């Protein structure tokens, strides 16, 4: 009995199997490479956003310190801001942040523009704190809470790339001080 050689070189049908195995391995490696590229791009974007949000937070912290200092200085003397507190206005008081605005551009990337907004509003006012009998000398005397809000946005054109909003409450007290008379 004579043997029949298939495929002409004695390998039989294995050459076709090897072709399918190589194609399967190439497709599998291509899928892995594509997935790796997508994950790497997402990680890069996440790291960029995280870094920009941290810069926005640091700018907001500095702006909050400047806003509180501005508010403290302005309400200590006879100004419209002091009258705003004493008269318990319902309107918001816009705070201009000058120092941090000058430095903020050097903290962000060259293609981003920082936008800083700050405002104060009176949240609460009470003539009695409930602990001791308190008889105010004036209807304007008492304890209050002012809310200072700072919002920082990092913009690329009109698109917002990062932002941070800080809101802090500070207590204040309005007291009538009467100097002794000298007759």
Can you summarize this structure?
The chain is of the alpha+beta class and 183 residues long.
Set down the secondary structure blueprint.
Elements lengths: L13 H62 L4 H7 L6 E3 L3 H9 L5 E14 L15 E15 L2 E16 L9
Antiparallel strand pairs: 1-2, 2-3, 3-4
Helix pairs in contact: 1-3
Describe this structure in words.
The chain contains three helices and four strands; from the N terminus they run ααβαβββ. It has helices spanning 14-75, 80-86, 99-107, and strands at residues 93-95, 113-126, 142-156, 159-174. It is elongated, with a radius of gyration of 34 Å. α1 (14-75) runs antiparallel to α3. A four-stranded antiparallel sheet has the order 1-2-3-4. β3 and β4 form a beta hairpin. The mean pLDDT is 82. The longest helix is centred in the N-terminal third of the chain and has 62 residues, at 14-75. The protein has 183 residues and is α+β, with helices and mostly antiparallel strands.
* Quantity of strands, as a count: 4
The overall pLDDT average reads 82
Question: Strand-and-helix sequence, N→C?
Answer: HHEHEEE
Estimated helix fraction: 40-55%
Number of helices: 3
Largest sheet: 4 strands, antiparallel
Shape designation:
elongated
What share of residues are in beta strands?
A: 25-35%
Gyration radius, in Å:
34 Å
How widely separated are the two ends? Answer: 145 Å
Class of secondary structure makeup:
alpha+beta
| Unreliably modeled segments | none
Which strand order does the major sheet show?
1-2-3-4
């Amino acid at each position: 009995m004579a043997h029949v050689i298939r495929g002409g070189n004695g390998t039989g049908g294995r050459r076709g199997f090897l072709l399918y195995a190589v194609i399967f391995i190439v497709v599998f490696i291509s899928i892995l490479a594509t997935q790796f590229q997508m994950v790497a791009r997402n990680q890069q974007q996440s790291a960029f956003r995280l870094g920009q949000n941290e810069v926005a937070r640091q700018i907001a912290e500095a702006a909050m310190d400047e806003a509180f200092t501005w508010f403290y200085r302005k309400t200590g003397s006879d100004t419209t801001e002091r009258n705003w507190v004493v008269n318990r206005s319902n309107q918001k008081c816009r705070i201009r942040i000058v120092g941090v605005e000058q430095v903020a551009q050097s903290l962000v990337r060259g293609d981003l523009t920082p936008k800083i907004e700050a405002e104060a509003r009176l949240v609460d006012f009470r003539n009695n704190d409930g602990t001791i009998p308190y008889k105010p000398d004036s209807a304007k005397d008492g304890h209050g809470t002012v809310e200072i809000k700072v919002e920082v946005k990092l913009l690329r054109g009109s698109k917002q790339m990062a932002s941070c909003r800080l809101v802090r409450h500070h207590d204040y007290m309005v007291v009538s001080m009467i100097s002794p008379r000298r007759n």
